[in-house]
Known about the structure:
The chain is of the alpha/beta class. The chain has one domain (3-464): FAD/NAD(P)-binding domain, CATH 3.50.50.60. The protein is built from 15 helices and 22 strands. Strands 1, 2, 3, 11, 12, 13, 14, 21 and 22 form a 9-stranded mixed β-sheet that branches. The chain has a 9-stranded mixed β-sheet with strand order 8-9-7-16-17-18-15-19-20, sandwiched between helices. Strand 19 (395-409) and strand 20 form a beta hairpin. Helix 2 (85-106) packs across helix 13 and helix 2 crosses helix 15 (481-494).
Amino acid sequence: MVRTVNMSNRQTTADVILIGAGIMSATLGSLLKELVPDWEITVYEKLAKAGEESSNEWNNAGTGHASLCELNYTVQKPDGSVDISKAVKVNEEFQVSRQFWSYLVNSKLIRNPRDFIASVPHMSFVHGEKDVAFLKKRFEAMSGNPLFQGMEFSDDPAKLAEWIPLMLKDRAANEPIAATRIESGTDVNFGALTRILFDQLKSQNVGIKFKHSVEDIKRTSEGLWELKIRNMDQGTVERQRAKFVFIGGGGGSLHLLQKSGIPEGKGIGGFPVSGLFMVCQNPDIVAKHHAKVYGKAPVGAPPMSVPHLDTRVIDNKESLLFGPFAGFTPKFLKTGSMFDLITSVKPHNLVTMMAAGVKNMSLTTYLIKQVMLSKEQRMEALREFIPNAKSEDWDLLVAGQRVQIIKDTAAGKGTLQFGTEVISAADGSIAALLGASPGASTAVSVMLEVIQKCFPQHVKAWEPKLKEMIPSYGVQLLKKPELIREIHASTAKALGLDDKPPFIEHTADEIKLG
């Protein structure tokens, strides 16, 4: 039997309620606690710990997305030139994250940045004459930009053997190959960062309630938000009011946004895609590769399917991760329900969802093929990167769920979106984050957008503190090359990225080219 507990007589209205204990709520809570320390903030999370869903270190690739290697952020236009505008935008957003993390380190709010971030070179790798030509044009477009200072290009097998020895061993000698490399790339343990931030928030009197599931959100006659919350341990249901609510529940955000009833949430649907990776923890193999290496997605594959071979640093131990391979389940979270997809279909988004189904038959076909892959077929994809990869060295890992936004746009009804988006009420009293990549890497920029949308009356007064935390706040970095150099240097120092980990360089003589 579920017992209802009425909290209205003995609990004050919270200034802020954050739903979901992932990197987004952790970031927003940390920003607000610096801006307005006296606000009452409460966090509700249905799982037993913070950072256990999308933010968990084994549920994402851990790439500090800065457009240094992601080829899908740079599109070749019909005239042959390469458009780097999205790459510039994502890089600037990652610089904002680095600045805020550095502020927390310098303020002693984060003790040891090595617990969540490591220096790992970012590389793009291609083969075949057409893709080698594309990569060279991309390099030429990016290398002159101060945001991408230090990027190198090579199509020389001897140089590539130094950079990526594991990938060059036993590779066909007559195959055109090329890569770009930039040392300032990072591997980020977003699960560890999330836990660090919530531990700090707890010490600052933020109430964090685990195993509490938010089941409903309604607006009261006073203009507040009342949440129906189930205490999963005690079996009780309580109600809590707040002036502002942020829904940061990953794939679970869509259902709660719909329950809020705000008109801005109408007509939006979601499509879940699960991810799988191959993981290698054999120290002899791991020691031969130190980089995040991104390739090109197969023709017809969606953007989130870009293959990459990554060095991961988790709990000070390195491993290799390759993927992603797509999977499908109707769940919106790994811990969600098999009915998540069907219950997200409402009268207001039915036509949008149906249109998406018709327009994305190729995606459906792709997902079916991916789900049917055997381990050996996945190994064949890996051998595009590591020609002599052995099946016994690699295990399959089920990663997190991503719910792609479906909405009507200028491109037509039922358009599938592959980015992140903040949906907020007109009065700024509630906001939800929907979507996927680049997600966590740009969490600070996304949460600044929430602050600007939802607290416009405070932003002017908060500006000095915002500029203290994020020196580039309000500045377009691309127009300030000197500031870019200062930020690169200061954040690298604060985050301990100047100290490069040991890595054995290999020469071409040591690498057997087939």
